[in-house]
Amino acid sequence: MHESLVNFVQENEKEQFRLLRQLVEQQSFSRFKAGVDAVGKWIADSLRGTGMVLDVVRESELGDQLVFRSPAYRTGVPPLLLIGHMDTVFPVDSPFNWFKDDGQKIFGPGVIDMKGGLVTAVFALKALAACRLLEAIPLTFICNSDEEIGSPASTPLMQTEAARSLLGLGFECGGLGGEVVTGRKGKAGYLLSVKGRAGHAAFAGADKASAILELAHKIIALEQLNDARRKIVVNVGVIKGGIGPNTVADAAVAEIDTRFLTAADCVDTAANIFRIAAECAVPGTSAELHQTLSRLPMVQSAGNRELFRVISGQADKLGLPCLEELRSGVSDMNTIAEAGIPVVDGMGPVGDCDHCDREYMIRDTLPSRTKLAALSIVSSWEYFR
Ligand SMILES: [Zn+2]
Predict the structure, then answer these.
(1) Which residues is 55 bridged to in the sheet?
(2) Which of 44, 206, 240, 292 maximizes the CB count within 10 A of its CB?
(3) What is the Å distance from ligand 1's center to 149 Cα?
(4) How far is the CA of 178 from the centre of ligand 1 (A)?
(5) pLDDT tier for residue 160 given thresholds of 50, 70 and 90
(6) CA terminus-to-terminus distance, the chain
(7) d(CA 359, CA 366)
(8) How much is the average pLDDT of 101-122?
(9) Interval 104-111 mean pLDDT
(10) Residue 41 CA, ligand 1 centroid: distance in Å
(11) Tens digits of per-residue pLDDT, 116-138?
């Protein structure tokens, strides 16, 4: 069985790169519905004939969500859950719009984030179908449309599917050393608004109620929350305020991003930020704080590590490197992990520089990661069922 799966991927390498090219050449910015839907159509076309049954969740503004289920899927039998997003961060008119293959690396928008991962999952499923394994392994494959903007529409769908699943495999890119991701930091964002009292700069003395001055005090306190030991990150990334140098600022705002490894660190950091917001160094000013988004960490649980060991056992068979990674950025697997099932991410091909015009994939890793995915699906089903 092992050999027929590997052979199928080898025999279909050209088709894999062809689908990759189609997906990369189709711009699919999260808010470009027609582009995301076109990517979905290529994926659905490619899975035709595998027996995967497609359920489309229509969206009016964003791309539709696709939910594929294998012929073995039965209510009440927890399936494997595979996840990949179809959107990218690149606007429809982005100058980064090429597909370049130099024989070693492939460059293009979304080539590893995460059209490469989608192709990996699709061809792993095609290999399983060719070996009639989709009739034996219950499996759900979600292609969502909005990961790069925080998955506002697809989160409830993912939560529902995660709750009824056996385990989760995410197809974001693998690490440069062949890593698979067993944990991810959590993330919370905040908007801090400070109000002061406007006045003419020429007549305002030291006792002016400047919103900018108060915000400056708060920014220094916020940045002091960075903690290298606990790997807590606090970044004030945007500030705005004031209308001119001759005016005392009556309003100023800061946008804050925080990252943490554990739910407890999330709570602690939030408490500290609320405390700093409530403190007042400049009399006459006041502040308001709103949490704008929050994703819990994907903790490196015993279940995730067990799943990783099953996958690295298959990597050994294929002679592929497979190390464990704790990744700083968040993905949809943070949401899937909340269901308490074993999850890993980074099952896609290897590459780097995503979210910028140097984004690339290491060419060989598309077929090799596809073989790994196909074998891992079979072995994780056998191990966890
Ligand atoms: Zn991304």
Answers:
(1) 67
(2) 44
(3) 9
(4) 18
(5) very high
(6) 19
(7) 15
(8) 98
(9) 98
(10) 21
(11) 999 999 999 999 999 999 999 99
Rounded to the nearest whole angstrom, what is the distance from the C-alpha of residue 79 to the centroid of ligand 1? 26
| Token pair of 4 as six digits | 């027929």
Question: Which residues are found with C-beta within 5 Å of the ion, ligand 1?
Answer: 113
Find the 13 Cα to ligand 1 centroid distance in Å: 25
Cα 115 to averaged position of ligand 1 atoms, centre (Å): 11
Tens of pLDDT, residues 227-254 = 999 999 999 999 999 999 999 999 999 9
* Band of residue 1 on the pLDDT scale cut at 50, 70, 90: low
Q: What's the gap in Å between 89 CA and the centre of ligand 1?
A: 7
- All domains of the chain in start order, with CATH: 2-184+297-384 (3.40.630.10), 188-295 (3.30.70.360)
CA-to-CA separations, 335 to 1, 24, 186, 358, in angstroms, rounded: 33, 26, 10, 28
Would you tell me how many other CB atoms lie within 10 Å of the CB of residue 231?
15
Q: What is the pLDDT of residue 204?
A: 79
Distance 109 CA to ligand 1 centre (A): 10
Residue keyed to tokens 């991003």: 257
Which amino acid type is present at position 333?
Answer: M
Task: Compute the distance from residue 255 Cα to the ligand 1 centre, in Å.
Answer: 20
